[in-house]
Amino acid sequence: MPRPRILRWHGFSRRIEGTGALRLLLAVLFSLFVLVLGLCLGKVMLSPQRVAAVLAGEGGAGLSFIVEQLRLPRLLLGALIGGALAVSGLILQAIVRNPLASPDLLGLSSGASAAAVLYLSAFAATWGMGGLPLAAMLGAGSAALAVYGLAWKQGTSPLRLVLIGVGVSAMLAAATTFMLVFSPLSTTLSAYVWLTGSVYGAGWREVKALAGVLLCLLPVLVLLSRHVVVQQLDEGLARGIGVRVQWLRAALLAVSVALAGSAIAWGGAMAFVGLIAPHIARQLIPIGFAAQACMAALVGANLVMLADLAGRTLFLPLDLPAGIFVAVFGTPYFLYLLIKQRQ
Question: What positions belong to coiled-coil segments (predicted)?
């Protein structure tokens, strides 16, 4: 049996088995393959050698615009969105001790969607589209606060978080539908594209903005990751060993909300990513939250990049939202999880 490798960050250790490290490396290589494939395929087909020449500054202005301004930022934004949603789902599943938990279940997606539709209906004409990400993030945060506040009863329990989350999510979904019915047709069309989830028209400004948010959250996630395993314990046992369970749960929930809210803000409400990617990551790496988080981020990134690639290449000249293909990929796997849970 190979001895586990020890990675030390900021004074605490993480174990990654030798096979887990190999799988992470293979996942990174596969992500690079998907990135190169996305740069090559499209209305203008390019070879990998041509793409390399363009990135080296030798491809001409036309091809440089296609690769560096249209395809590359779109792929990178999709990777960031998928990775953030996947890690958010991994944290939520640990907090509520439910393998079917996701940002959709606790109302984060519904809150962001309701706030986004409200902004598109009432404020976009005056303030422009630049405020849409902020509105979505505020909506996700407000929904999370509502769920946590309603679930509080001398502390919170995983069961109450799930039940209240489902109720709040249903209420916000109804509010979103109500606003869409009474909105102008142009607003409704824009809202439906956003609600489906899309990275169409992504530029470097969006990539830098989302990357900046995620980089700010990364140190907090690293510091809190050592406490995720505590959320799997019985609360009485955890308190008995001196763990502040409620404080840690609130802090981890806040990080999960920030990850999901920022991803939804720039990519729309992509369903299933935060549910499916953590499961695949745990199957590939059974132990170690740090390794699972890295694997989940890579799986989520690949899922969104492949979905966006399918959306812009399978039905040329149409460019379909990536969220459609995320749902196409995710629905069979979700049914598999439901059957497995029942058994």
Answer: none
Q: Which residue has the tokens 């500054």?
A: 57
Distance CA 302, CA 308 (A): 10
Angstrom distances, CA of residue 10 to CA of 23, 224, 225, 297: 24, 12, 12, 21
pLDDT reported for residue 235: 60
Cα separation of 90 and 296, whole Å? 7
In the predicted model, residues of the chain with pLDDT beneath 70 are 1-18, 154-157, 230-244, 341-343
Q: Does residue 100 sit in helix, strand or coil?
A: coil
3-state secondary structure of 88: helix
* pLDDT given for residue 2 in this prediction: 45
**Cα(155)–Cα(279) distance, rounded to whole angstroms?**
28
Query: Containing H/E element for 15?
Result: strand 12-16
Q: Give residues with Cβ within 8 angstroms of 5, minimum separation 6.
A: 15, 16, 17, 18, 21
Helices (H), the chain: 18-40, 48-55, 61-64, 72-96, 108-122, 124-127, 132-151, 158-181, 185-196, 204-225, 235-240, 245-267, 273-284, 289-313, 322-342
pTM of the model: 0.87
Tell me the domains of the chain and their CATH numbers.
Answer: 77-342 (1.10.3470.10)
Residue 163 has what pLDDT?
83
Q: Distance of CA 289 to CAs 15, 205, 213, Å?
A: 9, 31, 21
CA 38 to chain CA centroid, Å, is 19
